[in-house]
Known about the structure:
The chain is built from 28 helices and 21 strands. By secondary structure, it is α/β, with parallel strands linked by helices. α9 packs antiparallel against α10 and α21 (about 520-530) crosses α23 (about 600-605).
Amino acid sequence: MPRFSIIVPSHGVxxxxxxxxxxxxxxxxxxxxxxxxxxxxDAPAAGLVAGYAGRDPRVTPVHSPPSAGLAGARNTGTxxxxxxxxxxxxxxxxxxxxxxxxxxxxxxxxxxxDVLYAEHERVPWWEGEPxxxxxxxxxxxxxxxxxxxxxxxxxxxLLPAWSAAYRRAFLTERRIAFPEGHFTDIGFGSLVxxxxxxxxxxRSVVVRHLLRRQGSRLNLPGEHHTELLDRIEPVLxxxxxxxxxxxxxxxxxxxxxxxxxxxxAHPRRLxxxxxxxxxxxxxxxxxxxxxxxxRRPGGSLGVQHRLLAAGAYTAFRAxxxxxxxxxxxxRLLPRPRGLRTRLYYRRQLRRRIDPxxxxxxxxxxxxxxxxxxxxxxxxxxxxxxxxSVFLVEPGQAHTVPEGVEHAVIGSRRSWQVLAxxxxxxxxxxxxxxxxKREGSVHVQTQHGTPLKKMGVDQxxxxxxxxxxxxxxxxxxRVDRWDFNLSSNTHSTQMWERAFPGRYEHLEYxxxxxxVLYTATAEDVARIRRELGVPEGRTAVLYAPTHRDWSxxxxxxxxxxxxxxxxxxxxxxLLRAHYFYDLGRARGTGRILxxxxxxSSEEVCLAADALVTDYSSIMFDYANLDRPIVVYADxxxxxxxxxxxxxxxxxxxPGPVARTPQELARVFRDGVYASPESAELRAAFRARFCQxxxxxxxxxxxxxxxxxxxxxxxxxxxxxxxxxxxxAAATPVRS
Length: 734
């Protein structure tokens, strides 16, 4: 029987789960079992957990459906546990180094207590200092093991479930489990201290809790706040049934109703129709369970207690005032440049949101492109009642197709539609001063699958961090997102890490890649003619990514020499990173510069094969099931400077060349189109082309613009059943 069983629910935190599991397995004290709780065997976290289980026999995963919630996951883990003591760790939190050794030493000193409370550290996502909120409370506890009557302020209400170790036999004997629904920690923790006979505390940090920047999800508005009363009512009944004296039940009562008053004092937490009923039900509970002789607190809090006891909701509502609403309004002041523009935008924000207006933007206004353009086009077909406006930079209006309404970024008209639009769709981010209005819907489409580190994950790479600007501002923009698109589970998990927020992941695929399945042979032939690809030639797309340490475009490859060495029928389509689109051609002869072509998807359709280094274009191009070659002449430098999420050299989409000579040989000898290359590509496609099937834009329009429920959205077509757009030539050479 292990000393500790550590139960780690994983729902919704697959991107950060490895940090939690690593923090447990790295403990110096090794007598434990680690029980990750996954949604299902095929859930995103299950594959990750299976790898840990294969490497360490102490890892024993179990499954609990998402519908069972956090309580169901913890209860499932408890039933599977064999340890003497149970610890609960959220999947995005970590155990502090030496935590298990400290718990074991303290238990050895106190004997077998029913519950051992410990300190925890609240760590902000990005900025701010860590805090230890449990320390002042636990500092007042006796030094040795004690009974609850000796420290009545320790009630389990103020301490989360993961801030303690619980004797498993005690929980089993008393039949204490996590109640279903929200506020489960309150119901569980309160019952633990009501029934515990021996308690002890450990005055050192055991858990480092990742404090969500937006605050607890429990504080979001919704019907779930009514469940707070469902959690406290059985606790109050149990306290009354035990006949506890007022000096013991009083602190529990005060702490529970402090939470009730906090909810009642934040009117936006509850729907308007529920506020009065919540207050009156709370008042009945207050009167029924108030301990005899309990003195109410003084000051404003005491007035709130009296109003609650009297059920005087109208007076309570008048008391709380409008301070919170004024504070929220101050935070929403717009910041566009120029006083007149700011005042104009502010006036527009006072107007009602137009429910049939959508605003789109791609690459900070570079033109009509990428997933925003694909969604825009599909919306015109499926949701014609919605007026759509595309934002472009000055001088880029010519990129917008005829008949598409557009506005120039920075103009009064652009600020007007940004203020009033119900839907805002972008593959990057809108301007800093754009306000997220209540009722508006922001869709982040992304523009690639992440190989290189993104978002806040860039912070530990000095060269990248220096060029990234303020991460605080970046996260402020993330706070505007309601939906975030993903083309594979890898992306879903990495976006969760890189851009922490409250948004919902839509694993619908990238709309810009729809055309890679819907284009016809005639479309491919037309695009090749427009790009100037000679008939009968093998077009190799060369698309290197940006180097953060470089100030200009450096291809890293002599393309003329490559063409000569690769074969006389090879032409190269050069597509530099869009940072280097200067509006002029760089190539001559057999080198066709397509950097300025607005559609990377059309360039992919025109190419018979792709050569890239670490660009995310490889993930999109893989949908075409055409040959891909990785040219990695500086992989070690790139990974050290920029950072990557996985080892591309170990899991490439095709042959890897490290020198120009190797690259030319791959094409000259036909290795790029060999069965071995196809096998690598098949594995790559299975992992990274999960959700791209030609219908991503339709799924987004139906879910977001038409409001169809998730269960009504058609499923993704299996990879084996998809037919990519045809290539212009069969890339088999000798």
